Structures are given as C-alpha cells and as structure tokens.
Amino acid sequence: MKTIKRILIIRFRQIGDSILAVALCSTLKKSFPDAEIHFVLNKNIAPLYEGHPDIDKVITFDKNENKPFTAYIKKIWQVTHQNKYDVIIDMRSTIRTLFFSLFSLNTPFRIGRIKGYTRFLLNYRTDTYSNCLTTDMVERNLLLAAPLEKIKPIQYTKEFRLYLTDQEKEDFRHYMKKEGIDFTRPVFLIGVTTKLLHKKWNTEFMITTLKRILEEYKDIQMIFNYAPGYEEEDARNIYKELGCPERIKIDIQASSLRQLAALCANCSFYFGNEGGARHIAQALEIPSFAIYSPSASKSMWLPANSVLARGISPDDILPPEQQVTLTYEERFALITPEKVYDQLTSTLRQLS
C-alpha cells in the first residue's frame, strides 16, 4: 500500500479521553499530511474540535443515534460506506465499536486493543491497558499508530491542542471584564467540585487550601468552575464558607464547551479537582495543578508535554503496596492541605 487517503479514529467517551486522543490525530496528520483524519465522538463534546487543523471531519453520534441499537448500526453502515477508509483505529475496541471494522473488512489497517474478542475483526492489535505499562495515556494512545510504521516512519508527537478563534477568546474576555476580572492580576480557574462524588477532594481540605492561597497571594483572583445542579450548589456552599470574598467570582458562566474553553484560555492557571476542565486548560497551554482521587491514576492521566501540568495523588504520599489495608476514603485523605499547598507553591514558583 503506497498511500493513505483516509483515516478513521473512533474515540467516543468523555472530554478528557477525547482531548488526550488528539495527540494521535496530530501524529497521523504529521505523518500522512495528505490524508483525511475523521474523528468519531459523542455529539455533546464535538464542538471542542471545531476548526482543529489536524482533524478534517468530526463524525458525531447523539443519543438517538446510539440507541436503539438498530439506529447505531445504521449510522455506522452509512459512515463506513460513504467513506472508504484505508485505516480504522478503534481506540476503545468494544463490541459496539467493532462494528466499524465489521463493515470495513477491506480496510487494510484495522487497528485496536488486544482483547479476547477483537482478534476476529482487527488485524493489528496493541496492548494499551496492561498494568505493566508505565506510560501515560497519551503514550498508550500513540502505540496505536505503530502498525503504520509498515508504510513509513511515524512522526510522533505528545502534544494535544485545542483551538479557539481570536474572536471567541476576546468576546469571553470582555464578558469577564464586565464581571469584575482585572487582567493586570493573575486569574485562577478553580475546579472546586466534581460531577462524580468519589473523585472530589475533601471539601474542608479544599476550603482550607483556598483560604491559604487567598491569604498569602494577595493579587490572585479566582473563578469557581462548576456545572448546573449539584456542582453549583456545592460551589456556592464553599463560596459562603470562605466568606464570599470579592476576589472569588462565582457567577461567571460558560454556557457551552466552547465558552468553557474560552474561559480557560483567559485564565492564568487551573487549580482543583482533576476533570475535563483541567484537560481543556492543558490543551490550551494553560498551566495547572490538580488533585487526583485514588480511582484516577496520576501517572496515566497526567501526560507530560510542553505545558507545565502538575498534580498530586495518594501514590505520591504512600506507596500503593502500603495502601492495601486502607479504605478508599483513607487513601484520599492522605492528600492533606499541607501537602497540596507545598506542591502547589512549588509549581507556582516555576511560573514566576
């Protein structure tokens, strides 16, 4: 096979997963600049990839196209038969996503993960989730490009970027100014809470840490990031516990993912719970420091690239083999305000 004209990358899942997958898209575009890169995503997160130079087409599946199953199969059939793919990379390699390969058996490279059932439809399989791997998620994703070395050397990159227009950034910056943000001073975006309770750092620990930041860094302004519903209620309660300080903005709202990206792009730093907003910040080259729950491996989900991104997890405090007798809550509580503050200030010194 001399040329690759069209590549399909199947990702789905959540914001963080899809952002880290961009490094694979960029690697393939660098390696095969004349090829079209098509990216399969859930519709709700697709706006993040509008105008991305390394993604030629975003193919979305909304709730009605994911269920019922017959609608899902019909959409896959249409996608695979309207586009004759030379490469299919099935990043998830689930029974559902394998239908892309089932309907594309003439595709020379059907690449995915090693699972018991994938050998029937994928002709190149990679072990990307082995516990023995010490690589982060971006490096694991890039393993899926290795079979294409048969054609030519692959130009790997660990960079994952999101792109906004200057107008989008300027419009949101104007809105932030109207809400009282002074851009002559640092602006911290604070991931003060999370959608999933088991990933949320102890609320009292968060309050203690934010109080100390406010006391010792007099110039810093904070914007609390949260989603409507439980997260908003939680964020407002923390705001009240802190005494509703003027330097914290609680009502700056991002009503879409593009606006959330514009908010991140106009901030100096991200601090708080690990989540989608932190991934967006790193993809927009905004430095960050995040707190990782016991269920989110920092070594896997904090990829190293050219952006200053740091974090703390229970494994940084106590070796995993010594945590086996602890409950989940006890493991999470190993991350104390003192340890967070020490590492946070060390990260901030690197920026100064």
How would you portray this structure in words?
This is ADP-heptose--LPS heptosyltransferase II. Keywords: Glycosyltransferase, Transferase. One of its GO terms (molecular function) is ADP-heptose-lipopolysaccharide heptosyltransferase activity. This protein has 2 domains: 6-150, Glycogen Phosphorylase B (Rossmann fold); 166-351, Glycogen Phosphorylase B (Rossmann fold). Helix 1 (15-31) links the parallel strand 1 (6-10) and strand 2. The radius of gyration is 22 Å and the shape is globular. With 352 residues, the chain is of the alpha/beta class. It has 14 helices and 12 strands. The protein starts with 5 loop residues before the first strand and ends with a helix. The chain has helices at residues 15-31, 63-66, 69-82, 99-102, 137-142, 166-178, 203-216, 230-241, 257-265, 276-283, 298-301, 314-317, 328-332, 337-351, and strands spanning 6-10, 36-42, 57-61, 87-90, 109-113, 124-126, 187-191, 221-224, 248-249, 269-273, 288-291, 309-312. Strands 3-2-1-4-5-6 form a 6-stranded parallel β-sheet, sandwiched between helices. A 6-stranded parallel β-sheet has the order 9-8-7-10-11-12, with helices on both faces. Helix 6 (166-178) packs across helix 9 (257-265) and helix 7 packs across helix 14.
**Main beta-sheet annotation:** 6 strands, parallel
CATH superfamily of the largest domain: Glycogen Phosphorylase B
Helix coverage percent: 25-40%
Number of domains: 2
Strand order of the largest sheet: 3-2-1-4-5-6
Protein name: ADP-heptose--LPS heptosyltransferase II
GO molecular function: ADP-heptose-lipopolysaccharide heptosyltransferase activity
GO cellular component, one term: cytosol
Keywords: Glycosyltransferase, Transferase
